[in-house]
Amino acid sequence: MKFAIDIPCFGLPGSSGNDFGDPHYVAELAYEAEQAGWDGFFVWDHMGANWPVAVSDPWILLAAIAMRTKHIKLGPMVTPIPRRRPWKLARETVTIDRLSEGRLILGVGIGGGSEYSAFSEPGDDRQHGEMLDEGLAVLKGLWSGAPFSYQGRYYQVSDVHFMPAPVQAQIPVWVAGFWPNKRPFRRAAAWQGAFPLGKDLSLVEQMAPEGIREVAQYIAEQRTANALTEPYDLVQCGLTDGTDPAADAALLDEYAAAGATWWLENLTNERGSMEDQRARIRKGPPRL
Q1: At 5, phi and psi to the nearest 5?
Q2: Pairing of strands 2-7, 262-266
Q3: Radius of gyration over every alpha carbon of the chain, rounded to an integer in angstroms
Q4: How far apart are the first and last CA of the chain?
Q5: pLDDT digits (tens, 9 = 90+) for 75-127
């Protein structure tokens, strides 16, 4: 199992900096995470809508993280492709992959709520799912570095050629969804990883190991025989406090046995002070 930090891209009400909405501060947190032995550093992708906090663009944050680190994986967890232009996202992802020398992982989902409605963006979850599928097809075509055309219901691309290609032969794509909804995980089975989230959980709760086991079994049933021989990531977002290594290891053992390959330590503005959360990063990841 690998271990990463996962943070919001927005800060605290009334803050003047030194929180998750501050690009300089986030870059330093990522540096400290790498020094402490974490394997990845991921950032939420939110636009914000009438939010009384500082919100930073996740791709600018990722650029700062890429420049301040050398080894850890990085990426958005997760980018709602239906509220982005796939060709603009293709440029952003390739640029970050090259800037980080091949360390990008792309988390994707459909998003929802006011970040669509406040900007008069049309569509419901089903439509956004269709847009996500088309958007991923467009991304893959543009990442190829070869001439590419695409005719879909929502996106059309006519004889374009995007250069350069990413450093990685395939930027890993992790598809998020709320379990036990099945549709997102049928989609996830066609890519490199799944990021299941439990329904109706608060930001300081985590999906149980039984749920991860169910997702792992369902994903395996959806993948082709050839695909089953390829590496696949199953991502768990959860909480450890770093003060009791034995208890943390016991908890992680349960998730690893259920099939999880990545643990994302869920740091949020609801999880104590910034000093407490920075201290959690500095303690380093739990170890099995």
Answers
A1: -95, 140
A2: parallel
A3: 18
A4: 8
A5: 999 999 999 999 999 999 999 999 999 999 999 999 998 999 999 988 799 99
CB-based contact 288:26 (threshold 8 Å): no
Separation in Å, CA 180 to CA 98, 192, 234:
36, 20, 15
> CA 58 to CA 53: how far, in whole Å?
15
3-class DSSP state of 181:
coil
What is the greatest pairwise CA distance in the chain? 57
3-state secondary structure of 65: helix
Mean pLDDT score across all residues of the chain: 95
Q: Which of 194, 183, 196 is nearest to 220 (CA)?
A: 194
Q: What DSSP string describes 8-40?
A: -SB--TT--SSSTT-HHHHHHHHHHHHHHT-SE
> What average pLDDT does this structure show over 27-56?
95
**Separation of alpha carbons 47 and 51, rounded Å:** 9
Domains in the chain with CATH codes? 2-283 (3.20.20.30)
pTM above 0.85, yes or no: yes
Q: What are 36's two structure tokens?
A: 């402490």
The continuous run of DSSP H or E covering 280 comes out as: helix 274-283
Read off the tokens for 13. Answer: 């009400």
Instruction: Report the C-alpha dihedral over residues 143, 148, 153, 155, rounded to 10 degrees.
Output: 60
